[in-house]
# Entry
Amino acid sequence: MPRLAISKPFLRGGIRSLFRFMRNAFAIIGLVLVINYLFFGLSMVVSSSMKPTLQGEGGPGSDWLLCEKFTYWYRSPQRWEVVTFRNVDGLFVAKRVVGLPGEEISLDDLKPVIDGTKLFPPKPLSFLRYYEWGNLNNGKIAASGTGYYVLGDDSRDSADSRFDGPVQPEDIQSRAWLRVWPWHRIGFVNP
# Structure
C-alpha cells in the first residue's frame, strides 16, 4: 500500500497560509469591533415606557435596537426622533425628542404645545398621547433651556423630562435607528 508523503515545503506553505488567514481574520474582527464601538451600539429594551414603538421588559420578547452615533456628529437631534442617553440614575434609555433647546413646553388635550403653538406629530406617530404629570401637570410650562425635552411614547409609565428635566446635548449618545429583533418587528424606529 503506498504511503502518502507530505513534503516539508508543503508544510511550511500550509502553516504560512494558516497564519495569513488567522492574521486577516483577526484584522477583520478588530475592524468590525472598532466600527461598532465608534459608529453603532446594540441594546435591549428593558422598559415599557416607549410602547408601542419599542417594546420590552428585558425578557426574551424584548426589542433589540441598533443605534447609530455618527448622525449627531454633523447635526443636532430633531423633533420626534428617538434618542438614547444615560438618565440621572446612569441607565441607558431611549426617549422621543419633543422640545428643542430654547423652547417652552406645555400640554393641551394630550398634545404638546411648544412656545404657545399646539403640535401635531407626523402621521406615523398619531398614536402619541402625553399626560400632564411631573413638571407639566395642571397646565404648567416647562423650559428646555439648553437641553432637549424628551418624553416616552407611553407617557403614563415613563421617567422622562417631566420628572428628570431636559437632556443636555452632551448626554445624548446616539439615535435609535433600527429594531433588529424579534424578527417580526424588524424595522426603522424614527419616522
Q: What stands out?
A: The chain has one domain: 41-188. The mean pLDDT is 80. The CA atoms of residues 99 and 149 lie 4 Å apart. The radius of gyration is 24 Å.
